[in-house]
Amino acid sequence: MPAEPINETAVRQAVEQHGFAWHYRHHTESTNADVLRYQQQHQREVVAVSEAQSAGRGRRGRQWLSPFARNIYCTIGIAREIPASRQGLLSIVTGLALCQALQQSADTIVGLKWPNDLLVDGRKLGGILIESRPLGEASFYFAIGFGLNVYMSDKELAAIPQPATSLVQVAANEVDRTRVLITSINMVIRSIREFDHRAAPELIAEFARFDALHDRPIEVIAGDSRIRGINRGITSTGQLQLETEQGIEIHSAAEISLRAVPD
What we know:
263 residues, 7 helices, SH3 type barrels, five-stranded antiparallel beta sheet, 29% helix, 2 domains
């Protein structure tokens, strides 16, 4: 599939209908950095999209492979009043919104791996990175970044240091990158604006439906420490519940990563 930029006019119109500013580049270091810089300069909600990133990052500073005009690199800058203790749920809200968007725009069933990976058949299709900046008491500006593999070649996928896939390989229908992007932006903005942290039980139940590792053996990795147990879902604040022989342990997304282990 040849590299072809998105239909910028169509995406900009969709973004502006939500009242957001539009920030588009062919090349950038990071769309998250673009959004945080834009907010500092203009104090506005904004959607930043780039065709390629030279310093795209995942969680814990991991580099994100970003070839030109083949994937989706997008960050939504949005202001919300959400208690700091419940902000761990935002990656869950975003992940569920992207699952809906990909089913609608690419007829693809996607699962989630806590806290921020999108998977198809155990292979990574995309990821989420959320950063925040305080605006006032209980008010924050969130840079909600997501990357989706769309037209990655077998050679490009092989260069990723974990099992990965792309939409063109798993979608039931032909993939339109512009349509996927617009649908994803619409779904994420709507979900973040409607998010009510007091409705955590419903969110937890919904996440369990999409959790690719729910009730499965996993290994929690924190530095040199590795702990095995059963994934028992998330708490009302978005933390992982790991069942071990000693009982339920609670883990924060900022501290660990996890992987599936054979049953």
